[in-house]
């Protein structure tokens, strides 16, 4: 692998459980050291290297600070590359997705900001539970299918949470 592991950039062992505050502090320290402005007087090669290091650091940070992206990254480190789009063969989860989407549409149609806040809290609880389940099984080869299934659920809830934040902003205006 040509680029260093995202975890190695931050002097961390690959793990799903991370101290995100500590990660942010370390990111800021490293970002200052490789910021392209520090290399304004350097030759073109040094400037390019600084820019590449800065871009790698930003990509690593964005991946590690987001639980579903971190989960996908860990699975990619430990096994075959995962397809970005995949058919989910999980009827219970598909039903849950449909119900959550319908509930969100109803909240949007009703301009129900209090309902949106309640929905957001429910998503947070569900996300925390998925994160915990993933943390328990991600590095067990015998549970890889389960870890992949949980990661896909995490991605769905993350996308839904993003939509909820957008709705919340619209209703706040």
UniProtKB/TrEMBL annotation:
Residues 5-77 form the J domain. GO terms for molecular function: ATPase activator activity; protein-folding chaperone binding. SUPFAM superfamilies: Chaperone J-domain, HSC20 (HSCB), C-terminal oligomerisation domain. Keywords: Chaperone. InterPro entries: DnaJ_domain, HscB, HscB_C_sf, HscB_oligo_C, J_dom_sf. GO terms for cellular component: iron-sulfur cluster transfer complex. It holds the Pfam family HSCB_C. It comes from the Bacteria. GO terms for biological process: [2Fe-2S] cluster assembly; protein complex oligomerization; protein folding. HAMAP family: HscB (MF_00682). Belongs to the HscB family. Interacts with HscA and stimulates its ATPase activity. NCBIfam families: hscB, PRK00294.1. Co-chaperone involved in the maturation of iron-sulfur cluster-containing proteins. Seems to help targeting proteins to be folded toward HscA. This is Co-chaperone protein HscB homolog. It comes from Pseudomonas segetis. The gene is hscB.
């Amino acid at each position: 692998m040509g680029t260093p592991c995202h975890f190695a950039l931050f002097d961390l062992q690959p793990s799903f459980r991370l101290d995100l505050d500590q990660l942010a502090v370390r990111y800021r320290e490293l970002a200052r050291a490789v910021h392209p402005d520090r290399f304004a007087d350097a030759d073109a090669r040094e400037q390019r290297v600084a820019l590449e290091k800065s871009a790698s650091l930003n990509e690593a940070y964005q991946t590690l600070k987001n639980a579903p992206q971190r989960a996908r990254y860990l699975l990619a480190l430990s096994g075959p590359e995962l397809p970005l789009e995949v058919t989910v063969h999980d009827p219970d989860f598909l039903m849950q997705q449909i119900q959550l989407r319908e509930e969100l549409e109803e909240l949007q149609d009703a301009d129900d900001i209090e309902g949106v806040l309640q929905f957001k809290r429910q998503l947070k609880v569900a996300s925390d539970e998925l994160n915990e389940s993933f943390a328990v099984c991600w590095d067990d080869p015998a549970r890889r299918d389960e870890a992949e299934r949980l990661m896909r659920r995490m991605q769905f809830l993350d996308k839904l949470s993003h939509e909820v934040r957008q709705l919340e902003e619209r209703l706040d205006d």
